[in-house]
Amino acid sequence: MGQKLDYMAKKLAIGYIKKFDQIKEQGKGFYFYSQTKGSGKTSLMASMGNALMKTHFASVRVLTTNNLLHAIKNTFETEGYYKLMEQIKRVDILMLDDFGGERPTEWVNEVFYTILNDRMTGNKITFFTSNTEIEALQYGESIVNRVMKMAMPIKFPEESIREGIAKKTKVSWLC
Ligand SMILES: Nc1ncnc2c1ncn2[C@@H]1O[C@H](COP(=O)(O)OP(=O)(O)OP(=O)(O)O)[C@@H](O)[C@H]1O
Ligand SMILES: [Mg+2]
Question: pLDDT digit string (tens) for 26-46?
């Protein structure tokens, strides 16, 4: 993340946290996206989750969408499944990491439709990180429309902090 975005992202995050009581009523989250991997989307989302837990006592759940889909598949229609779906429906802030990375099968569409529809009708906040802009998501229109309604899109720069860190920490004995 360049210094400019670092500043902008921090400002956005702080503003959101400060105005959270108001934003909560609207049920709006963020959709952080960039094609470049390692631009800081997951880090910022997780930091916001921690801050909202501390400052507003919000319940937060961060899940990688791939792991979530596996958990649903593995527990399908067992007690564990209903418990998980209930938690996902009720948690104040759901953070879906790497949204849009999975193959959009009919089943995947059904799962996301159920989750997002439940959260939208319950006016619950959902955050997303993705390598795809909302309009280019490969899911059905009803899902894409719900994401648009539920989250403000923020484009991260096509620049990898991860690579920057890797270069800086390159072990000296290799050079
Ligand atoms: N503001 C920051 N200052 C310094 N380091 C950061 C900052 N944000 C993130 N990082 C570091 O940069 C790396 C990449 O961040 P992160 O995993 O959040 O990227 P990402 O955009 O989610 O990547 P991907 O698209 O692969 O999911 C991590 O090692 C993280 O610790
Ligand atoms: Mg990430």
Answer: 999 999 999 988 889 999 999
- 37 close to ligand 1 (CB < 6 Angstrom): yes
Distance CA 92, CA 39 (A): 26
Choose which CATH entry (3.30.70.100, 3.40.50.300, 3.40.190.80, 3.40.1190.10) describes domain 33-160: 3.40.50.300
| Residue 6: per-residue pLDDT | 66
**Domain range list for the chain:** 33-160
Residue to mutate (ligand 1; options 161, 163, 165, 169; most atoms within 8 A of CB): 161
The whole-model pTM stands at: 0.89
Q: Rounded to the nearest whole angstrom, what is the distance from the C-alpha of residue 93 to the centroid of ligand 2?
A: 17
For ligand 1, is residue 42 a contact (CB within 6 Å)?
A: yes
Q: Where are the alpha helices (DSSP H) in 60-100?
A: 65-75, 79-90
Helices and strands in the chain: count of H runs, count of E runs: 8, 5
What value does the mean pLDDT of the chain take? Answer: 90
SS3 content of the chain, % helix, strand, coil (to 5): 60, 15, 25
